[in-house]
């Protein structure tokens, strides 16, 4: 018997291939569950060739329609989005279509029923919408959670490699089926290194980072009737951490930290030409020239209607007023206080603001008044090259979560977003001694060890291959492989020596952060300057016995990273996700997480100075009472939370660096993170180096 996993794989291969004639037949038990799923997702851009479609009977569905007939009402708005176009969660009309299709798929009680429903509508709905909704349902339905979703890199390879490269490889394979050479995606994929910004192209265009962003928006959807715990706060925190990592990478290249957009009236300095196509028909993503001026959007081909820059400015002004006034108004005019110290562990102000800024109309306290600032900003930039559809151009790459992180302006936009949230965070009081300290626990020493070398981590280039033929039809059976060169590092361990002077065991949360030591000018940074560069590396709970405790923690168990992308071929072979600790398995939310190979910043060939900060806090204060439903994979709980459960840390995300530093502790002035750590036994800092060795990195 095939597993549920094999059934799901079929859903993710060939999503756009239509029937070859006649009507669709549904599972009879003769075909394996695996093949049922794979058939839906293989060679996605092969369209239907005629015939009719049978909708499965039962649950109110029993309609038989021709391929040119009107879709059944059960699909709702799902057919409103044209096939062959981009599907974007940033566009409200697209979210409405997604909700209809997800509700249709959610009727399935098992893989067989889901396969039937998917077969019935796959040639009636937009291809990317189809994959999104299948993924959404598989992640969320308890009956399907023992299976994995294959990597989006293989499902939609055209989002990761240029059509020119794909077509050339396809032609060569057709001429020589025995060819085994992969398509090499080089570091000058979208532009030469003449422009300083292009030095970071390898980072922005990394397959893992973009896959993470696609998956994150899948597990934290907007207007899909999903109530994720602390969703607004995690929207703020994940993107803030993403910016911190980008800034560390920029400093590794002696570039200034990213500058925010100053508003929506100034020209966008950096253009972007993704070199990607929406599908293998050759329809290109929209491009943006340097110094493009944003304009009001006036186009209805995407269900957009009119989007005014003035409206965005008004929404921003109202939200900023709420921050400075200390309250936000709901639709009834009630004032809701904004504070990160709510009574009885109520909803924090950062969470309320995140819901209003992103924005989710179902979660925002007053959607008509505070608007849809984040999503509209993405749309405004993504159509800046053709705001009125005069040139019939497609949306730009920043309009799709799977490609938006490739665009340099994504980071300038989110720096603008983060500065709003920091305006709120700096209104909060500094943490006091009781919140920062942990009596009876002392961190004696910390360090990192990689290949037997202490406190000197090495990064360099590595390669990973994926199969493009899983998602594209090249007219042959030979595999088309993509070879990506990406930043990577050897695994390393954290070593901690801790004294527990208490008479009994103590459960503690270990919080590990990393930040560069020097700024762009080579100066040591103050607490406030360094505060937004501290990136969370790991967070875990451990039990300290009385006396000395020596802890060793592998970088592979990080609370922010996910296991490597899982391919169709690996799933077909029955690969199980076994890496990570048992705690990680319990927190599993498959697929969401920062790529493990991008855990460390690049560093410099001569070595770059970083600081490691470790803080222990009382787990009795940190813990959140809840039931964890186990899943068969690890995940990035710090970035992705726990599906259907509460976020497993009661502290504000980013603690203790989410607020300004105390001006004085125990009579000592605090101006740096090192001075803060020196005042508490449960904190310690250590200087380390990260050295970039290029192609000399030893493969793990």
UniProtKB/TrEMBL annotation:
Region of interest (Disordered), residue spans: 52-74
PROSITE patterns per the UniProt record, alphabetical: HEMOCYANIN_2, TYROSINASE_2
A GO term for molecular function: metal ion binding
InterPro entries listed in its UniProt record: Di-copper_centre_dom_sf, Hemocyanin/hexamerin, Hemocyanin/hexamerin_mid_dom, Hemocyanin_C, Hemocyanin_C_sf, Hemocyanin_N, Hemocyanin_N_sf, Ig_E-set
Domain Tyrosinase copper-binding: 407-418
Keywords: Copper, Disulfide bond, Metal-binding, Secreted
Entry GO CC: extracellular region
SUPFAM superfamilies assigned: Di-copper centre-containing domain, E set domains, Hemocyanin, N-terminal domain
Compartment(s) where it occurs, according to its Swiss-Prot or TrEMBL record: Secreted
PANTHER family (alphabetical): LARVAL STORAGE PROTEIN/PHENOLOXIDASE, PHENOLOXIDASE 2-RELATED
Name of the protein: Prophenoloxidase
Organism: Macrobrachium rosenbergii
């Amino acid at each position: 018997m095939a597993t549920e996993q094999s059934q799901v794989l079929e859903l993710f291969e060939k999503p756009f291939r239509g029937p070859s004639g006649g009507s669709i037949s549904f599972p009879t038990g003769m075909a394996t569950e695996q093949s049922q799923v794979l058939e839906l997702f293989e060679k996605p851009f092969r369209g239907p060739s005629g015939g009719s479609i049978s909708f499965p009977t039962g649950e109110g569905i029993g309609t038989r329609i021709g391929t040119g007939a009107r879709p059944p009402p059960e699909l709702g708005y799902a057919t409103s989005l044209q096939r062959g176009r981009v599907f974007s969660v940033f566009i409200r009309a697209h979210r409405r279509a997604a909700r209809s299709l997800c509700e249709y798929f959610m009727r399935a009680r098992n893989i067989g029923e889901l396969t039937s429903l998917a077969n019935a509508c796959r040639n009636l709905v937009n291809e990317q919408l189809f994959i999104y909704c299948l993924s959404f349902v598989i992640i969320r339905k308890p009956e399907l959670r023992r299976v994995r979703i294959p990597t989006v890199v293989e499902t939609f390879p055209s989002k990761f490699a240029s059509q020119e490269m794909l077509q050339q490889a396809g032609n060569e394979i057709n001429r020589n089926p025995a060819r085994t050479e992969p398509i090499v995606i080089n570091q000058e994929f979208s532009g030469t290194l003449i422009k300083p910004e292009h030095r970071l192209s390898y980072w922005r265009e990394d397959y893992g980072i973009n896959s993470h962003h696609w998956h994150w928006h899948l597990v934290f959807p907007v207007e899909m009737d999903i109530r994720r715990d602390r969703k607004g706060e995690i929207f703020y925190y994940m993107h803030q951490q993403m910016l911190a990592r980008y800034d560390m990478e920029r400093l590794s290249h002696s570039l200034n930290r990213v500058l925010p957009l100053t508003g929506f009236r100034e020209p966008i300095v950096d253009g972007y030409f993704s070199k990607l196509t929406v599908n293998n028909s050759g329809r290109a993503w929209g491009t943006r020239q340097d110094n493009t001026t944003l304009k009001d959007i006036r186009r209805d081909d995407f269900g957009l209607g009119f989007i005014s820059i003035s409206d965005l400015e008004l929404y921003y002004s109202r939200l900023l007023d709420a921050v400075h006034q200390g309250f936000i108004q709901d639709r009834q005019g009630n004032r809701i206080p904004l504070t990160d110290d709510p009574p009885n562990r109520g909803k924090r102000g950062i969470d309320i603001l995140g819901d209003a800024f992103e924005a989710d109309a179902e979660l925002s306290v007053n959607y008509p008044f505070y608007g849809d600032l984040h999503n509209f900003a993405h749309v405004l930039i993504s159509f800046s090259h053709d705001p009125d559809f005069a040139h019939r151009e497609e949306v730009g790459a920043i309009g799709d979560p799977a490609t938006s992180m490739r665009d340099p302006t994504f980071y300038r936009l989110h720096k603008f977003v983060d500065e709003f949230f920091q305006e709120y965070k700096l209104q909060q009081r500094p943490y006091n001694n009781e919140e920062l300290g942990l009596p009876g626990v002392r961190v004696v020493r910390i360090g990192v060890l990689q290949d037997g070398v202490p406190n000197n981590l090495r990064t360099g280039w590595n390669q990973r291959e994926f199969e493009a033929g899983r998602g594209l039809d090249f007219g042959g059976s030979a595999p088309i492989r993509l070879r990506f060169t990406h930043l990577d590092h050897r695994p390393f361990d954290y070593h901690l020596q801790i004294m527990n002077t208490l008479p009994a065991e103590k459960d503690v949360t270990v919080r590990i952060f990393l930040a560069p030591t020097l700024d762009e000018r080579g100066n040591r940074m103050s607490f406030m300057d360094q505060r937004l560069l501290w990136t969370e590396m790991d967070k875990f709970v451990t039990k300290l016995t009385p006396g000395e405790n020596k802890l060793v923690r592998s970088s592979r168990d990080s609370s922010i990273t996910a296991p490597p992308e899982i391919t169709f071929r690996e799933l077909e072979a029955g690969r199980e996700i076994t890496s990570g600790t048992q705690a990680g398995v319990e927190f599993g939310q498959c697929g969401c997480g920062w790529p493990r190979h991008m855990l460390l910043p690049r560093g410099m060939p001569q070595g770059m100075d970083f600081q490691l900060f470790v803080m222990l806090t009382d787990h009795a204060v940190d813990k959140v009472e809840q039931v964890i439903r186990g899943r068969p994979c690890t995940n990035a709980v710090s970035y992705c939370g726990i599906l259907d459960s509460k976020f497993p840390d009661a502290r504000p995300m980013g603690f203790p660096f989410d607020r300004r530093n105390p001006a004085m502790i125990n009579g000592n002035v605090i101006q740096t993170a090192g001075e803060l750590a020196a005042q508490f036994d449960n904190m310690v800092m250590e200087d380390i180096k990260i050295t970039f060795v290029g192609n000399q990195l030893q493969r793990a």
